[in-house]
UniProtKB/TrEMBL annotation:
Keywords: Cytoplasm, Methyltransferase, rRNA processing, S-adenosyl-L-methionine, Transferase. GO terms for cellular component: cytoplasm. This is 23S rRNA (Adenine(1618)-N(6))-methyltransferase RlmF. Residues 1-21 are annotated as: Disordered. Transmembrane segments: none annotated. The keyword Cytoplasm applies. PANTHER family: RNA N6-ADENOSINE-METHYLTRANSFERASE METTL16 (PTHR13393:SF0), SAM-DEPENDENT METHYLTRANSFERASE (PTHR13393). GO terms for molecular function: 23S rRNA (adenine(1618)-N(6))-methyltransferase activity. HAMAP family: 23SrRNA_methyltr_F.
Length: 329
């Protein structure tokens, strides 16, 4: 059993990651030039510049398509009705912070890039946003998993629709709703990272209330007719809630990671609620990781956390990453 290392809490300021391409206001003329379909959704901002109605699911979906095309070369992206539409800036932020974890373990402290770096995305969803962004940003080879056949089928279609990225993407159906790493990883599999955007809520009612609150907080005229909008915005049940919410889900992840401690150099997940952290830290203490990191991330007024843990020593982590290429300084 590996010794429990010191707990290292890294807290950022209230801004996106320094490498995040979305730190500046959206450049709507460039976005419209990349995707003309965005133009009808753009309107003057009450204070200055332009904006979209973020309570309009069609506007948000189209903005995502434009962002992905302009900044990441993802020419074809869409979602079937009723699936979770992810915020691109915050999803990119997670990946930049996760990349920093790997960089800290390399000899030259640069981000390891290229297909030698493998990542595992648990609950990839139909949007496949982490695999697509990770492949575009860093050239990583990503395996996305999900319990929903419709999500896996759609994610595979997105990969096929973007030929430059398709060879880096693999999607696997998880046959058991109670398993995470089991069933979809082979004994010989080895990953640099696991990624996860877990279902945050513990029940359908809690999920619906959270979605409704988010829409009403947007404060637009569209948001005031919010009950029907919540259905459009929300996502599928497995994307939004599970028994016990994010705490139960991540506890399962911790337990499975302890059973296969060498599967990933770093196991990581998003944690939405600050109140979840003490319970998760206790679960990690029982699992005896070598190191734990809690990285606070910001997207507008929303704060979330990246929770990361590893069972490997710094020397073991460096050995696992020595065969990969790195980005220029």
């Amino acid at each position: 059993m590996k010794p429990t290392g010191p707990k290292n809490k890294n807290h950022t300021t209230g801004e996106l990651h320094p490498r995040n391409l979305h730190r500046a206001p959206y450049d709507f003329p460039r976005l419209i030039a990349a995707l003309p379909e965005l133009a009808p959704f753009v309107q003057p901002h009450p204070l200055a510049g332009d904006t979209i109605d973020f309570a309009n699911p069609a506007a948000v979906l189209t903005l995502n398509r434009a962002l992905l095309k302009l900044h990441y070369g993802i020419a074809h992206w869409d979602l079937p009705s009723g699936f979770l539409c992810p915020p691109v800036p915050s999803r990119a932020d997670y990946l930049h912070h996760a990349a920093d974890l790997l960089a800290a373990d390399t000899a030259d402290k640069t981000i390891p890039c290229g297909p030698a770096i493998r990542a595992l995305d648990l609950g990839t969803g139909a949007n496949a946003i982490y695999p697509l962004l990770a492949a575009s940003l860093f050239g990583w080879r990503v395996t996305g998993t999900d319990i929903d056949p419709a999500s896996i089928n759609w994610a595979r279609q997105l990969a096929a629709a973007n030929p430059p990225l398709a060879p880096l993407l693999d999607f696997r159906l998880q046959p058991s709703a109670s398993a995470l790493f089991a069933n979809i990883t082979a004994p010989t599999d080895s990953f640099a990272l696991s990624l996860c955007n877990p279902p945050f809520h513990a029940s359908p009612d809690e999920a619906a209330a959270g979605t409704l609150r988010k829409i009403r907080n947007l404060g637009s005229p569209t948001a005031r007719s919010s009950a029907k909008l919540a259905l459009n915005f929300g996502g599928r049940p497995n994307e939004l809630w599970c028994p016990g919410g994010e705490v139960a889900f991540i506890r399962r992840m911790i337990a499975e990671s302890a059973a296969r401690p060498a599967l990933c150099v770093w196991f990581t997940t998003l944690v939405s609620k600050r109140a979840s952290l003490p319970l998760l830290e206790r679960a990690l203490h029982s699992a005896h990781p070598h190191d734990v990191r809690i990285i606070t991330m910001f997207a507008g007024q929303k704060q979330s956390r990246l929770l990361a843990w590893t069972f490997l020593s710094p020397a073991e982590r460096r050995t696992r990453l020595t065969s990969v290429t790195s980005t220029p300084a």
